[in-house]
Amino acid sequence: MSAHERSGTTLPGARRPGPRTPASGPARTARVVLLIPLVAILALLSGPAVALAAPAGNARPARPAVQPAVGALQVAWQAPSARARGGARVTGYQVRVMSKPGARTVRTVRTGARARTVTLAGLPTGARYVARVRALRGRSTGAWSAVSAAVAPSSTGAARIGTAEHPIAGVNVPRAGDALVMYTRTAKQTVSPANEWGVEVAVRNGTISEVRDRQATLDRRGMRIPRDGYLLSAHGAARSWLLANARVGQAVVLTNGTTSTLTPTPPPAAPVGALPQRVAGVYWTGWNPAPAVDALPAGYNLAYLFAAHRSAPYGAVSWSYARPTGIPAARARGVKVILSTGGAGSGIAFTDRTTSTNFVNSIEAINASWGGTRTAPAFDGVDFNTFEAEAVPNTPEYLWMAQELKRRFGAAFLITSPPAPWRDSDRAFCAQMLAAGAMDYCAPQYYDGPGLADPSYIVNSVRSWVRDVAGGDASRIVVGFGIQPGAANYSTTAGVAQAWNQLEAEFPRLRGAFLWSHAGDAANGWGFATTVTPSVRN
């Protein structure tokens, strides 16, 4: 039986993604990781603003604007020219806040490339601060902007959702009757301290990501405070206001009680395929069709449909199981759905353009049979898992297929792949695909082979993938875990959490994690979905 043929309670003949069994067990090395203590209160990141680009040739952002918000300062800036520094693209920004120019740094925050504003909460009130910004281009850093100054206001103000506004009673204070308060993440406060008699709303990048009415279900678990945002927690009359106005996807504007701040314009609706900031994915297998895709636990925000296997003519793939149910409903609530292709025993050698064309045409045929069109596809992307142990990837043809799929279905159509972490050919393939912009992320898999479930091996291996395959950009790497009770070479929930927490501490911009498989997680009491995904997504 191959490393990816099903075993135990699953049916014979099914295939799992990616080769798992190396020629010999992975080398294990020990490394001491220095964990830098977190600042008392983490920064809150806002979404992309409407600022225009700076004039061509300007290698650094212009002087930022700094304005007060409730219990916080907001910093907004313009993007430097895309042509600066020989055309190197901006991969992020660094924002630094000091008590005065040249003085001790109070807070340093890194953002993504599309960010144009950041909110810093928990600064001592009444003090004067200065802020400056610089662009990051891969491993290079640009020049700092000139500084701007403002005074941190007291912890009072309001939250505005649409045209409705409600006063905020305070930041990180006990929630009193009929009050709306804000909770920000600190080294000691990672979940809401409020009781179950209220409603809580998570705000990430200036946008509502989750609404949980704890009172309706008497949920005693405090809601997790996002790293890139904050919680609004409301009781009584404030609870009624929040329930009436808060919806997932809406923007929240923080004000000082009288005027709006630099919170950006609400982002447009996410296009087909647009990746979440953090991926928490799971392989949904066609031979285990329960639960339906839309009934998967809410912790998952991405589902791989496994799998469209090798078919005729050679190069083509087809879905041989019952058509998955619940895809439109899952996508409507923000879950990305990706069609996985290939799997163990279903590798394809793409040696010529005819074979590659057969593959792309077969994807279009599956899309059409599921009711999709080129402008409105039935799924958000394709997962290349067609280069199993019997088929080394021919990168030029994969580049063509990825580009052709994006040409037919749109630039936002996702291209992903779950390579074997130890195979040099897989590493070279992913490095070239990422460098060409033909793949949105690669996701090396750590299960179903000797030593692959060892947290220390996983951490050391992911370090090399970030450094050598993704060029230091951790946002292009997703980590694949396996939890399958009773199966050899699979992790436990605790082992996965250990590996993920260590990786996230070292690589805060790591794109996310996925699990093989939804049936394994169900047999494990949904341990990954309920225990690990909150850490991954926050």
Molecular structure report:
The chain is α/β, with parallel strands linked by helices and 538 residues long. The chain has three domains: 48-151, Immunoglobulins (Immunoglobulin-like); 157-255, no CATH class; 279-537, TIM Barrel (Alpha-Beta Barrel). Helix content is 20%, strand content 25%. The chain contains ten helices and 26 strands. It has helices at 214-217, 237-245, 327-332, 353-369, 395-409, 424-435, 455-469, 493-506, 518-523, 527-537; strands at residues 44-45, 65-69, 72-76, 92-98, 105-112, 117-121, 128-137, 140-141, 148-151, 157-161, 164-168, 180-183, 199-204, 207-213, 229-234, 252-255, 279-285, 302-310, 317-318, 336-342, 381-385, 414-417, 441-442, 445-446, 478-482, 512-516. The strands form five sheets. Strands 17, 18, 19, 20, 21, 22, 23, 24, 25 and 26 form a ten-stranded mixed beta sheet that branches. Strands 4, 5, 7, 8 and 9 form a five-stranded antiparallel beta sheet that branches. A hairpin with a 2-residue loop joins β10 (157-161) and β11. α4 (353-369) packs parallel to α5 (395-409), α7 (455-469) runs parallel beside α8 and α8 (493-506) packs parallel to α10.
